[in-house]
Structures are given as C-alpha cells and as structure tokens.
Amino acid sequence: MKKNLGAKLMIYPTPLLVVSTYDKAGNPNAMTAAWGGICCSSPPCVAISLRKATYTYDSLIEGNAFTINIPSENYVKEADYFGIASGKLEDKFTKTGLTPIKSEFVNAPYISEFPINIECKIIQVTELGLHTQFIGEVMNVKIDDTIQENQPIIEQIKPLIFAPDGRNYYSIGEQVAEAFSVGKEIG
Fold first, then answer.
1. Is the N or C terminus of the chain more exposed, i.e. has fewer CB atoms within 10 Å?
2. What's the confidence (pLDDT) of residue 59?
3. Closest to 162 measured CA to CA, from 35, 51, 42, 63
C-alpha cells in the first residue's frame, strides 16, 4: 500500500551543481543549485532553475552564459558556502580560496579546483512560477587532467548529491549494475 504525501519535491538524487557567471561589473560569482540536470542530448543541453531573488539571476539574463561546475566531495564546505552566501555582499572566491578561470567558449568563469566544468550559452529562458528555468547549450566540457577516461569517472570525481527532503548532501555509492544491460535478464 502507498500513502499520499501531496505535491512535494521527491526526485532522488538531485545533483549538487555550482553555477558560475560574471556580474554586471565583470566580477566572478558562483551559486549552488540543485534544481538542474540534462535536458537534451542533441544538441547537448542542460537546465538550471533558480529564483529571481538570487544575485546570479540578473547575471544570467545579462551575460547569456554560465558554467556548471561539479564539485567533488572534497569541496562540500565550499559548495555549501556558495549556496548560503550572496555574491552581492561578498566575493565568494576570495572567501573560499577557489580559483575562477575565464572560460574559452562562453563569457563565464569556471572553477579550477572542481573536476568537471561545463560551459553553456543560454538558448531559452522559461518562467515557471517561483523559479525561472535557463536552458544552456553545452559549448564545451572541461575535465581535470588527472581523471583517467578508461576508469569510471564518477568514482574518480566523487560528486555530491543533494536530498531535498532532509536538506543534506551525500556522496555516490558503489555501482550496482550496468545500464541498458541488466534489464535484458528479464526478457
């Protein structure tokens, strides 16, 4: 038997993403976002959703670009800080000691210390209610040169995930099956 919980956000897991932009003055800024993910494979696109009240919102509208930075579990404090501090009030990069680098393909900074950086140009903006969704076409992906492509990348970067119900961060567990393969055992 099942019980009804009503309209709630119960998708698991949600990724822990750090979105970077330049503000009006050209200063790098970053914010943590969990409302995001892949939304199209061709062309490759990602979606992020955030509230208009965030400092990053205007930077997205004006700059028409952003990066998504995937932090490893080693940077959980910094990733959380990006979500609780406002770039309007302080320089988050100075506070965290992390390094913003100008992207090659879009006008947005990426975070040098994070193992994966996705450079995106905004191709669509949709007002949804409390949040606005930004669809970004992926122009380039950067990956740390220590990552071995012949090994599972997820196990090397150890990305963080967010559980919205308890407002907690988790690391990724072990592989349990091979996608598009294990289901063949049924048929």
1. N
2. 96
3. 35
Kindly give the residue spans of alpha helices, DSSP state H, lying in 100-166: 153-157
> Tokens 């943590």 correspond to what residue?
32
Provide the pairing of β-strand 44-51 with 65-70.
Answer: unpaired
- State whether the Cα torsion 40-139-133-115 is positive or negative: positive
Tens of pLDDT, residues 119-176: 999 999 999 999 999 999 999 999 999 999 888 889 999 999 998 888 899 998 888 8
Other CB atoms within a 10 A radius of the CB of residue 90 amount to 11
CB 39, CB 135: distance < 8 Å: yes
Question: What kind of architecture, by CATH, is found in domain 14-185?
Answer: Roll (2.30)
pLDDT at 164: 85
**Domain spans, the chain:** 14-185
Whole-angstrom CA distances from 81 to 20, 60, 85, 97 are: 14, 20, 6, 12
Q: Is pLDDT of 104 > 90?
A: yes
